[in-house]
Every structure is written in structure tokens, then in C-alpha cells.
């Protein structure tokens, strides 16, 4: 079951895509944080994948204040448009959007109250990191977040600056051949979280690049995608039980 809806964030309607599993009874929920390109077919595919695994999944459009209809192709021009939109997003707006989504989910009878995680991809991976400071979340899964160990597109400091305020388990994925995120960045993320005593796991697949989980790339990365999804399912089962 899936539908389009909006969630109010301080008077701004945030377009969202909801995908629910079959069956009665409240289920844990996962907030899906989009790639830089918008809430597109790929983001909805991931929400549906999570619903098939038994989770209420909701993909939110955190561009709703400035680019509510952004849906860019995976091209160089699309990337430029996506970066321009991401440049209008701040930690404060991301946290407001995710906090509003947590409150909306907790108010739904089909959601197991208090059992909510996030998963984010690309810039959404960075969003998952900095919103992991919010109350009401049980876990966060950032996939190849380029602004975790580098500055945000709007000029704000890297996500690692917020590490001390994270108090939930993290599962982070990176590609060893990522053209956007150097190998040293993934290492620094791991070391920073470890030094801060945060519960986490950093998984680096040496032979894949950026966006390896995307459907258009997954045919080349079948073993890594399979392993990553199994890790995601295990992690969510553990943290949202």
C-alpha cells in the first residue's frame, strides 16, 4: 500500500511518499532521506523495498521550501540542479523536517510508537547523520553521505561536528572507489565516532563507487548490494525490535 501525502512543517507542506506493509497491527517505521536529485522513482523504490521487509516507510521531500517539485535525472546537469537545491538546505531545516515526520509517524495507528529509524542516500546520507541527534529516533543508516566528513553545500561545517550529540546506533556505508568521497573520509568518520564512544559500524566496499545501491548501478554491484541490504535488515531488526 502506498500513497502521496503532505506533512506540515511550520506551515510549509512537505510532500512525502508513504509505503506500508501488508497486514494488521502497528509496524516500526523508517524515514527515507532522498538523494540530491529529489524524491524520484529510485527513492520510492527503496521505500517500497522497506515496506516489503515489514516497515512503514516514508520518503520526505526536504526541498519543500524552495524546490518542492524537484526531480532531476542522473546527469551532470541534474547533479548541478540538485546541488543548487541542497545549497538551500540547512541542519535546522533538516531537523525540523525529520522531527515533524517523527511526530506524524508516532500519531499514526499503523506505526509502532517510538520505533523509528532513518536511512539516507547521497546528500540524504549526510542528512541522516546530522538528524541522528534528534529525540524519537532509534537508529540511522547513512549511505555514502558526502557531507559527513566535508562541508555542507550551504557552507555549514561537516556533519562530524555534530558527533558528540548523537546517541543512537549508526550503520554507515561507503564505496572504496567513490569519486566524491575519498577513502580517508570514511576512515575519519569511523575514527571520530570511535573516539566519541558512539555505537556504530562503518562498512566500506573496496570495489564500488558512489551510489552503488541505486538500481541503475546495482547490476554491477550485486554482491555488495545483497550484503548491504542484509546488514540493513539485521540492523533494523535489532534496533527497532
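^ Assign residues to that structure.
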Amino acid at each position: 500500500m502506498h500513497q502521496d501525502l503532505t506533512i506540515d512543517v511550520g506551515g510549509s507542506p512537505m510532500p512525502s511518499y508513504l509505503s506500508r506493509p501488508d497486514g494488521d497491527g502497528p509496524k516500526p517505521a523508517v524515514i527515507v532521506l532522498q538523494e540530491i536529485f529529489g524524491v524520484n522513482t529510485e527513492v520510492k523504490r527503496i521505500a517500497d523495498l522497506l515496506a516489503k521487509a515489514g516497515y512503514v516507510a516514508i520518503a520526505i521531500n526536504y526541498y519543500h521550501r524552495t524546490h518542492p517539485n524537484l526531480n532531476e535525472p542522473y546527469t551532470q546537469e541534474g547533479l548541478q540542479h540538485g546541488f543548487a537545491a541542497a545549497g538551500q538546505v540547512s541542519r535546522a531545516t533538516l531537523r525540523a523536517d525529520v522531527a515533524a515526520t517523527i511526530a506524524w509517524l508516532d500519531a499514526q495507528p499503523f506505526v509502532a510508537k517510538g520505533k523509528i529509524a532513518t536511512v539516507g542516500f547521497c546528500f540524504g546520507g549526510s542528512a541522516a547523520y546530522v538528524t541522528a541527534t534528534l529525540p524519537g529516533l532509534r537508529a540511522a543508516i547513512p549511505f555514502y553521505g558526502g557531507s559527513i566528513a566535508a562541508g555542507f553545500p550551504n557552507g555549514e561545517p561537516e556533519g562530524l561536528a555534530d558527533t558528540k550529540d548523537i546517541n543512537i546506533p549508526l550503520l554507515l556505508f561507503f564505496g572504496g572507489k567513490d569519486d566524491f568521497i575519498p577513502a580517508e573520509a570514511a576512515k575519519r568518520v569511523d575514527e571520530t565516532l570511535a573516539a566519541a564512544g558512539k555505537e556504530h559500524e562503518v562498512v566500506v566496499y573496496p570495489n564500488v563507487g558512489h551510489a552503488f545501491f541505486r538500481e541503475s548501478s546495482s547490476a554491477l554491484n550485486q554482491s555488495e548490494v545483497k550484503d548491504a541490504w542484509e546488514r540493513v535488515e539485521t540492523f533494523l531488526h535489532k534496533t527497532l525490535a
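The chain has one domain: 2-239.
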